[in-house]
Amino acid sequence: MWTSRQLANELGADRRRITKIAQRRRWRRHEGEWLFTDEQADEIRRTIRSYDEHVPMTGTPCRVEGCDQTARFKGMCNTHYRRVSRHGSTEKRDGSDWQRAKTHCPNGHEYTPENTYRFADGRRRCRACRLERASSP
Q: Mean pLDDT of all residues in the chain?
């Protein structure tokens, strides 16, 4: 049997990381302490090593050309990683790009020049939906 402390020392990992893996797999504690069989310990080792292969070591530069920040996740600095997660590109865009990319209103009407109210600040509303709301009691 392996304890979480023994595995943490062997792998150079934090004990909390090992206990989180055990909790996700719904393994049980033994008399208040985490004890792992050889098979469970091997699975924890594989999980931690496979994760560490995909995450770059601290100190490597961001993989985006021209960026000199340190990579944090998936080979990118925090700024570029957040941009990719927001709109799929590392290029700087304003926050409303995802709204402008929509071609239909939530009720399925197409945003055409004839069917769209445009506000001075760039917002838009569907005319068909507005007419439906106005005609309903």
A: 83
